[in-house]
Backbone:
């Protein structure tokens, strides 16, 4: 099982972007809840969802059957 390297930069962007979005989302959500800021909390949750989606897309693409 050899990984395809033609989309290497895209995979790296999805992985790092997803991790960054999750970390930033956690921080913003925590700050929003602490200071009772609805806007900050919502933005943090949206970043968490975006990060999760990017990582799921990367995993799904990696696990596709060659064919």
Residues:
């Amino acid at each position: 099982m050899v990984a395809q390297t033609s989309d290497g930069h895209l995979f790296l962007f999805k992985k790092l972007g997803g991790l960054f979005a999750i970390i930033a989302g956690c921080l913003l959500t925590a700050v929003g809840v602490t200071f009772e800021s609805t806007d900050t909390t919502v933005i943090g949750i949206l970043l968490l969802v975006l990060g999760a989606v990017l990582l799921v897309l990367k995993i799904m693409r990696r696990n596709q059957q060659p064919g």
